[in-house]
Design brief:
The longest helix is centred in the last third of the chain and has 20 residues, at about 290-310. Residues about 340 have low confidence and may be disordered. The chain has helices at about 10-20, 35-40, 55-60, 80-85, 95-110, 115-120, 130, 150-160, 175-185, 190-200, 220-225, 240-250, 275, 290-310, 325-335; strands at about 1-5, 25, 45, 65-70, 85-90, 140-145, 165-170, 185-190, 200-205, 230, 255, 280-285. The chain is about 40% helix and about 15% strand. Helix 8 links the parallel strand 6 and strand 7. The chain folds into two domains: about 1-95 and about 290-335, 3-Layer(aba) Sandwich (Rossmann fold); about 95-285, Rossmann fold. The strands form two sheets. The protein has a seven-stranded parallel β-sheet. A five-stranded parallel β-sheet has the order 2-1-3-4-5. By secondary structure, the protein is an alpha/beta fold. This is D-3-phosphoglycerate dehydrogenase. Belongs to the D-isomer specific 2-hydroxyacid dehydrogenase family. It comes from Prauserella halophila.
Amino acid sequence: MRILVADAFPDEYRAELTAHGHDCTYVPDTTGSELPRTLTGHDALIVRSTTVTADAVEAADSLRLVIRAGSGTNTIDVDAAARHGVHVCNVPGRNAVAVAELTMGLLLALDRNIPDNVADLRAGHWDKKRYSRARGIHGRKVGVVGLGRIGLTFAERVAAFGAGVHALANPNRDEQTRERARAIGTVFVDSLDELARSCDVLSFHVPATAGTRLMVDRHLLAQLPPGAIVLNTSRGDLVDEDALIDAMESNGVRAGLDVYADEPAAGTGTVDSRLAKHPNVYGTHHIGASTEQAQHAVAAEVVRIVTAFASAAPSDAPPHCVNPDAVERAVAASFPTSTSSGGRP
């Protein structure tokens, strides 16, 4: 297959794709607006943060597979891909440790005021009296919203610091998740409001969906105790940013954030965010999954997806495909009598 790799991707895994007989075009700085004119002739597309719009999908003449080298697919127009018979896959779970580590780092930074410590020391200011004030993590109640791979991995780490983990009850959780949650003494509650009222830290680890958009709103923030901490390392559109600013100013809420509603799509650029500039916020640059360990784990899974897709029958969906049924319907509508089989070119 001809594969366009439109974001940074480790050299050894591109070499592995080439060794498997694929023709890789590596343009890691490709922007979403450039994709429509660069996808021509490519069967597969690998992206990380590059946006894949309906225009890009429609302009592609042979595209059959899009892989997001990460856990979400909110930067990809999955519906447009399905209409054109394009499978969309993600790589869930391989970056869980990296995101959990950053979330833990933000929590510790907020509790001990680490960034301000560093800034003052570099500026020549010594203020031990101010920076000696910290509550500590041990014994605190930490609400984890979303016990998927990332949320559960974070929960295990914060429990190791002696915090009490609280989460929403969910009868549909698999037994492995239940067992891991029980092992760290997770306390389950029935509603998000109850979680906010009973915890002084809320950490969000849910995907961007219609149901999670703006879930951190004025109502929820009003349930938090004074001085509570909000952590968001998932998606920016979970948070009503104006409401969070108001809660910080009226109730002393603090926030550790890796994502923002209007963050730049490119790897570098300028940002003008009231929320990111607020003194009660310690923020990072959407780097949750950006450890070397995580990127290698993700890249290895991308290679596995490509290999499985290339060798499967055309009717088979690749691993971690998020739109298999829609693609199947689109293909059936285009080729109602097709009975072809065998691997893909």
